[in-house]
């Protein structure tokens, strides 16, 4: 794109070249899928803003893909981390912060009795599926098309981009090269929102370990409460554990996650992101009958075959737990924070919609509880694959590029996230940048 970047972001460009010589950065979507033409390397971050190596400031709507609901460098998190470092970071030995985090998690979800801590959302899904397989002594996992559950083979089956088979009974497809084909074969794929399709659960009930679903898929930022109720009823009838993946939505759309909004109790809930205050963290919470599949017992060797193993050297380390406790306590004690976020989300969504409407641009924006999903698409309905097929992804990528030019960091091809630290001023910058970016895009 523009030659003027040589003067605007010279240090980031230099760092990009240096990084490319030694670092494969698959966790950074903007370097994995499509090397960004506007790379940003952060020098520091505070509140709702980040600053790059050249001193350019951006209002950040990536939120680090989820953890930073209080914004960057929040004093309560900083203090917790600093005191944790001073006290010594402990892992693999019991300590109070891990007990406190488990208590906070269990208290947040009516359906949760016990928690197991791990290091990421990916790990929480691996663990939840293992607990269910151990409990049911069955292998097959049911998941929904387009739902990403972390980067494990299981988490990525039919998670994005490539879809085959009947839309009501999709064929499972590996989400990445290098997947174990056995995992793909042991997965059944359903459509979120397709209540009629749930009859297939009855047909396969005897093979099923569990059903895992994002109750509020981040690709749509919308909860289908009627569908979730039907799913809960059917799985309960059949005795199949229902796992909610609330790695993104837990403590974000409401303190108790999407399940609190929908009023539905899953058997297990997968968590991550916010619960570690920006440090690596994950957790499975849920019914003790399931979580206890991994419980230690008086005589571990005698009943070893009857248990599922949960491990992780750094799982529940005291530093992560202290950071998580600080964020969760703050969120719990400031319940109006969620109403404020919702109001800001509505305001910004209206700004976006006004900008696209006045230009006649087909753009579908779903926004709820600080999560925005934006697609340049004529389709507002239909199942996941149909909405994706109708979306102009090049325009979404171009938008991220122009928004950076106008002082806003958007992640490419990922939902945008507001934090409680974004000020009215920050939001005004975003609204204006969106309008200017659409003008730039129309002009190119
Ligand atoms: N589940 C969902 C719904 C996610 O969006 C993600 C990551 N964005 C994960 C699981 C995996 O979490 P992590 O990246 O922490 O492993």
UniProtKB/TrEMBL annotation:
Its cofactor is pyridoxal 5'-phosphate. It comes from the Bacteria. Keywords: Aminotransferase, Pyridoxal phosphate, Transferase. One of its GO terms (molecular function) is pyridoxal phosphate binding. This is Aminotransferase class III-fold pyridoxal phosphate-dependent enzyme. The lineage of its organism: Bacteria, Bacillati, Actinomycetota, Actinomycetes, Streptosporangiales. The chain holds residues 436 to 879 of 884 of the full protein.
